[in-house]
Amino acid sequence: MAFPSGEQETLQRKHCCLIHEFYRAASKSPDKIAIIHASPSNPSANEVRIDRELINGGNPPVYKGDRCFTFANLLASVECLSFRICSVLDGADDRYLIKPQTSGDNSNGKHPQSVQMSEASLDFIRGVCQHTDLENMYVPKIVALFMPPSVEYVVSVLSVLKCGEAFLPVDPAWPRDRILSVLDSLDAALVVTCGSSLVKSGSELVDQLDWLLECCSCPIMRFSMEASIEPHKSQSSLAWPCENERKRLFCYLIYTSGSTGKPKGVCGTEEELYPMQGEELLLFKTSISFIDHLQEFLIAALTACTLVIPPFTELKQNVFSIIDFLQAYSINRLTAVPSLMRMILPAMQSQHDIRISSSLKLLVLSGEVLPLSLWNVLSNLLPKTSILNLYGSTEVSGDCLYFDCKGLPSILEMEKLTSVPIGLPISKCSTVLIGETGNSNVGEICVRGVCVSTGYLFENAIIPLNNAKLHQNSICKCSMVECGGQIYFRTGDFAHLLSSGDLVFLGRKDRTIKVNGQRIALEELEDTLRGHNDVVDASVISQKDQGDNEFIVAFISLKEKVKSAEIVKTSIRNSMINKFPSVMVPSSYVFLESLPMSASGKVDYAQLTDSIFSISHVKDEIGDIGASNLMQIIKKAICDALMVEDVSDDDDFFMIGGNSITAAHVSHNLGIDMRLLYTFSTPAKLVISLLEKNVLNNTKFGVNDIPESTIEPDKVNRFSFPESETPDPLGSKLQGHLSLMPHERNDDQADQSKRLKVDLNKYYVLEPIDLFCGYPWNSAPMCDSFSFSRCNKVMLEGGQVVNGTWQAQLVEVSRTRTGYMQELWKVNMEACVDASPLVVFNDSDIYLFIGSHSYKFLCINAKSGFIQWETKLQGRVEGSAAIVADFSQVVVGCYDGNIYFLELLNGNICWTFHTSGEVKCQPIVHAHRGLIWCGSHDHNLYALDYRNKCCVYTLPCGGSIFGSPAIDETHGALYAASTSGRVTAISIKMFQDNLSRMFECIL
């Protein structure tokens, strides 16, 4: 890409700004692959491995299904998008711009309120951040980026930087309440979201923005690489930010948990660059809500390295898939929190593929304490890899201290440590320890330099970070509030100074913790809990298990005369899930009559901590439990992973605080495939699946000396769930007991060489069927989103109706010729059910929608039977529901005469249309027109525009309408029947101009 005249010389300036550095690096290698959107991996049954077609074995390797973008593509897209963003912020229109429905002005992002800065904020910025010319600095407009990690996200960040404004990453995986709270509190000038098909699988929320359009108070603009990489006729005339006489005060905002009870935005700058070699391959695997994600993609963009972006849905569902991408693309640099490495370590040890140890040059660990034991295993597993342990926080741009683990053996000869040191300050950064006693070697870590952010943006004001003034010659002795000298940011973390000059992390004295690398202020959780209608007061504490994993426990005092504790607990838990990322949701809830108080009248957190029950590790006890107690084995494994005292047989693992990392804990401790836990998410379901898997599949019971069973080879079930990715397919300890089933128990439990003998008259072996992997939810050919309802009518997302039907296959192979059915779950609907279910597949999720005479309409997780949400209507439900074409709303008629439009994800009522009679008819979707057709007992057929919330046509049919209308899309006709004995055919080809009745037939 050619630069405008005079700009080539400007690019030669050394490190003037991030966007210049990107243009310089990209212009040198325009044809080099900058970003690879990796295709999903396809792990085999027994291990995580590469199983895809290599179409380019060069550097970088490219596989079938990958989407590649060159640096020339990125340059062209940045030129295009930066011009569009600047134009919109200046008040111009854009064909992809959607203005807020709630806004009555055309400001297009003008701040309704100016950002305020106190004198304390100005002093802090001058002191710790070393910005002296504040008169020539401005507060940039905030552009929110609502998209998952993708090439669009990288281009959007660079485009906002070129505009001279600040970007705000907004993770689509956040709960909606948190997203709207962040956008509203910051008065974001613009939201840029991804309209590309490339990231659809990364987050289903990206393509479902109706709720954001209705609730967000700022304009939203869609951007896609497909439309922006085409060459543009004119060059962008935007000025470079570094050439502006006035400099921006910050260039990005990252939200972090706040001790005041509300999250705060950290204002980051662009002072430091990261030198690397241009031939390295990097992996973009960190969520955009974490500060560490910035270095993952900016390093690649600024040094012309290739960046590999894996499908984030796959990473979320299967943490072990990271290993596949490390192997497949020969990744050279990986940034991770220690807890993640601890999760994938067993799989890495079992495979120990030489490709990872030879290609991975640098492993950067940060965000948590690095235990000495974990470093020891990693250093032996990856002898050729340099391991760095970094320390920092969002306020210091991620990292301010580093330690090269190559020097650890020499330190261990002199010091007795349990964790790896956090090391020395990085370039242009200085640290001191402020001690409360005379010991200058122990104290709070305080930082100054270009890495420190300019403050917090909170409620239209920039507030300073917690800071202290020290003598210029102060050496870790004391803080002087009014003595002048240098200003340091007080991190709240305490450390010990070693004789080598390195620091060792000791902990904190406040109530801020880190879970899986994410900082959490417990006060924020307490403040939210106290806002619940049933809660009088709440306190939250954190504890560590034997593996040094943090877990959160909430102690709650309830109001009088509340409903049952279980119902309240579910309500509180759901409320927290709707407001916080899963890592911030408490693992356990304890109800107390009142919270314990200290003599000073404050909550006694020490007493609460002492009340926590110590949970022993399941793995140490599992060998002592027999097959009859398999349920207890599973429940203990879940308790261990979630750090809770007890779970019931029917508790859904993911609804009581489980996530992908804790799921990996459970699967590793039990030695099972983690996908089993996603499919059978309650202990009861998992017990059944493991017993059936063991008996029907008849797999080997161990990985060493346990022989195969005696079932004939031709009877082995191939209609089965894929084998475990973990090193022990069902856990050698667990399987040893599973081999001793109650129907044929061996008295010698110590003899694990006994063979399992199966009575084939009691168990049924299914022949292979290509469509499925053995369980009703595992269907490879399924598209991302579709629904089916009465008469097996199938509708794809977008409204396309599948023509044709497929007969379900049922193969009877049992010797008794007896049929085989299994009850998976059941839900009490509390009254008669007349309607047929509506089943919706949305990526990996399956939901069932059904109503009853109890006035209740439910959304049920079809895998587990767990009620996702429940909405009480004003009358009984007798008709089946339908889903609109974009899969954002569910439509159902009611006996009160209303047709309800409910949000798919939470059941909130979006719109209600009232008829003059009962509605028993199932609505039908007219996707091409964006309409819902539904009849009523008032003798009318209605055409409803659910987007604009209006009725566009009413057709009298002469009688009550019970049955659903039928649409013939090919011939543009709709047919409706009524109790009058009349069938009416309607022409809908020219619906906007004229809707005519074709003919009527009297029966």
From TrEMBL:
UniProt entry keywords in alphabetical sequence: Phosphopantetheine, Phosphoprotein
Domain AMP-binding enzyme C-terminal stretches: 524-602
Carrier domain mapped to chain residues: 633-686
UniProt domain Pyrrolo-quinoline quinone repeat: residue ranges: 829-988
Residue ranges constituting the AMP-dependent synthetase/ligase domain according to the UniProt record: 142-457
Phosphoprotein in keyword set: yes
Signal peptide annotation: none
PROSITE patterns: AMP_BINDING, PHOSPHOPANTETHEINE
GO annotation (BP), single: amino acid activation for nonribosomal peptide biosynthetic process
A Pfam family hit: AMP-binding
InterPro entries documented for this protein: ACP-like_sf (IPR036736), AMP-bd_C (IPR025110), AMP-bd_C_sf (IPR045851), AMP-binding_CS (IPR020845), AMP-dep_synth/lig_dom (IPR000873), ANL_N_sf (IPR042099), Beta-ala_Activ/Resist (IPR052091), PP-bd_ACP (IPR009081)
Annotated PANTHER family: BETA-ALANINE-ACTIVATING ENZYME
Protein name (database record): Carrier domain-containing protein
The species this protein was found in: Gossypium tomentosum (Hawaiian cotton)
Organism placement in taxonomy: Eukaryota, Viridiplantae, Streptophyta, Embryophyta, Tracheophyta
